[in-house]
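Incident log, support desk, overnight shift.

02:14 A customer reports that sequence design results differ from what the structure should imply. Their input is reproduced verbatim below. On-call engineer (initials T.W.) acknowledged and began investigating.
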């Protein structure tokens, strides 16, 4: 599920906290939270219950991390990010993924 929310720029604390919270919901095995942190950069934070290696996806996007906690910062807009994420999600075989995009601007 990809959900888009408009609002203020996200900060470095809100994005990983949101990923942790989403992972705690029943049935979620992984969460990916994407937040625009300024007018040019987007941050992604990924969490997993250990059954999914979220590091695989974040490395493909130029980030890094560990099996159950990973992330990175990208210099791109939402359209570019969706184009990057779509093929990367094929690396992860899972029925319950949650993507949340926090931004004051879409595109």
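02:41 Re-run completed on a clean worker. Output:
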């Amino acid at each position: 599920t990809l959900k888009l929310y408009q609002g203020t720029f996200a900060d470095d604390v809100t994005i990983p906290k949101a990923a942790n919270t989403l992972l705690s919901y029943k049935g979620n095995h992984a969460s990916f939270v994407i937040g625009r942190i300024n007018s040019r950069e987007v941050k992604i934070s990924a969490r997993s219950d250990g059954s999914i290696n979220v590091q695989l996806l974040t490395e493909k996007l130029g980030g890094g991390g560990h099996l159950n906690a990973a992330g990175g910062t990208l210099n791109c807009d939402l359209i570019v990010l969706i184009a990057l994420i779509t093929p990367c999600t094929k690396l992860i075989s899972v029925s319950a993924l949650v993507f949340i995009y926090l931004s004051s601007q879409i595109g």
